[in-house]
Amino acid sequence: MTTEPIAPNLGNQDHPVFSNSLASLRGLAASFVVIYHGFLLLRVNGFDFPQRQALDFSDPYRVIVHALIGFFNGPAAVVLFFVLSGTVLTLSFKRSSGSQLFHLLAYYVRRAFRLYPLLIAVTLFSAAMHWFWFTDKPIDIGTSWMNNYFTHVPNLKEIVLNAVGYSNSLNSPAWTIRIEIVASVLMPLFIFLTRRPIYICATFAVLLALMYAPLKIGHVNVYMISFFLGALIPVYGRTIANIYASAPIALRYASVIGAVFAGMFTQRIFRPWIHVDPSSVLVVSLAAAFIVTVTYYGRRQNGWLNSKSLIFLGEISYGLYLLHFIILFMFMRLLAPYLGAAPSPELAIAAMFGVGLLTLLVTIPLATATFYFLEKPLQNMGRKYSRKLQAMSSKEQKPHTTAAPETPSAIN
Length: 412
Hints:
68% helix, disordered N terminus
């Protein structure tokens, strides 16, 4: 029985390194979200709000829509985002150094420069589109979900609340950024709590209780467990990956396919009518954690996840994710008048896929531009300030003592 090598160049637990395959996963997840949103735009045979409907075999077109929004499962991709964030933030935190206070401040500076510049820019862009492009006129063939967005003129207060991540009323996908911000604040604590098994068990108990608590805080409580699972991967994932690698190849393929299927279809099959179902989020988080683990510790050379195109897609994934919703709705409003008052199911499905694909193709160059001209320069600025904080930490740690005579031991 042969086994796959478990990433010999991933560093150790204290000094782990980043894996390009994680960036590729992030890019794929962002692309799936774009296509997923495309399949929610039009009613198919009167099928409204398809993402909230139980599986219905009475209409073959409804089954097709169910299958498509299950395969391109946006909510599952978001959970994968969160698990990936937990892993990547843990890797980043463990790579940096300095005293505890300056280490923490440097981390928060990097996160602020990572999350806020693009969020603010896209908020302003979205506000401008609300003012100058979109109208409150509904599209007759559109779903209730579609006609719920881009229908009002925002005021200054609403723009500010969106820009700081408190609200997502101007750009719906930004609800996940609010969760990212909260998780970013808590990640140092999560990383500390991964040190001992007793801390891990206690944290899981608390996070599970929070998942099912009836809190009205934008579902923040439901998703924190995804980030914590991601934080565990650089610390304990190698053991799971070794077990996976030592299994027969058929079992390895079956486990990966099972994890992917669970991520895509758990909520679609069992409780699609609940917007954020804690039980489904838990199952999908565990499946995503397994996928991230075997990806991070698996083969790193010549794998399809290490292709330059996918890695680049991962690099621009933040812009792709935040920008696509506005572009998607612009294209749909342009196309809708040409589809007629009652498009056939085949035409509606084809139109939704076409708009989703077109949105993806157009948003990629836009996200590329924002990455090179906004995100990357400001991320570099954040790293610069972070290094300054770490340098201040190093100066404070130097002992203030009088010079000793130059003896051989002192010189060495």
